[in-house]
Amino acid sequence: MRLIDSHTHIYAEEFDEDIDEVLARAVASGVERMVLPNVDRESYPRMMALVERYPKVLYPSAGLHPTSVGADYREQLDFVAEALAHVRFVAVGEIGLDYYWDTTYKVQQAEAFSEQIALAHRYGLPIIIHTREAFADTFDLLRRAGRNTTRGVFHSFTGSEAELEEALGFEDFMIGLNGVVTFKNSQLKTYVQRIPLERLLIETDAPYLSPMPKRGRRNEPAHLVHTLEFLAGIYGCSADELGEVTSQNAERLFGLT
Ligand SMILES: [Zn+2]
Questions:
Q1: How remote is the CA of residue 34 from the centroid of ligand 1, in Å?
Q2: What is the predicted pLDDT for the residue at 156?
Q3: 3-class secondary-structure state, position 116
Q4: CA 162–ligand 1 middle distance (angstroms)
Q5: Using only C-alpha atoms, what is the Rg of the chain?
Q6: How far does the centroid of ligand 1 lie from the alpha carbon of residue 155, in Å?
């Protein structure tokens, strides 16, 4: 089985002590490649240093995360634009809107999201969307950006069934699922099967959101198999089949070769 963790933050400090073991466990469990979404200017050097050590295994994405949109957001956006002009990335992200943690910079979050969508257009890249308690505005900004040129993934999808239907209406977008779908109290499992297989991505979002039975512990790419097996049960196929399809989806979206 060859799997792709389509969203993981293994450059985070949580992995400073044992990153080589973490990556060895990932590969041993079949997770051969990983997409690393950036958060902000501060996390960028850590991400790129790790990518340099593991080429053809780790693929970086450049972007300003909505929870990092603050007083210095203009400089942060300049930094993203500069990075995209000089380095080859597989996506722009993660970008989007987050009203859960803080709404102080709501207007600036929208501005940052729209500007980064425009950057993705310029470089012909997909976008990795983070949206939390902000689906209506996210859909609205996406529509204004133009459906024909915008493609990407709604990462860590945890919305309602109605929100899933609306997300699927954006035909060039995939839906990224992670450990949350395995949680006992999550309703997601009752309707995720509406996602056509060719539009499904799997991810860990490590170090967060460890799937059952690892819930509560630090998440890592090797844990992807638990989410894979859980979803294979929902779709009524083998983990091998689902792994193959979701890997092909990630390759197609991010242009991995
Ligand atoms: Zn993330």
A1: 12
A2: 97
A3: helix
A4: 23
A5: 17
A6: 8
Class of the CATH domain delimited by 3-254: alpha beta
| Separation of alpha carbons 185 and 42, rounded Å | 34
Write the CB contacts of 241 (distance below 8 Å, at least 6 apart in sequence).
Answer: 232
pLDDT of residue 1: 83
Element spanning 118, H or E: helix 106-123
Give the pLDDT score at 257.
77
Q: Which residues pair with 59 in a beta bridge?
A: 35
CA of 157 to the centre of ligand 1 (A): 11
pLDDT of residue 148: 66
Q: What is the pLDDT of residues 74-116, one digit of tens each?
A: 999 999 999 999 999 999 999 999 999 889 999 999 999 999 9
Residues found in the chain: 257
Is the bond preceding 45 in cis, omega lying within 30 degrees of 0? Answer: no
Residues of the chain with pLDDT under 70: 147-148
Query: Residues 6 or more apart from 142 whose CB is under 8 A from it?
Result: 117, 150, 170
The domains of the chain are located at 3-254
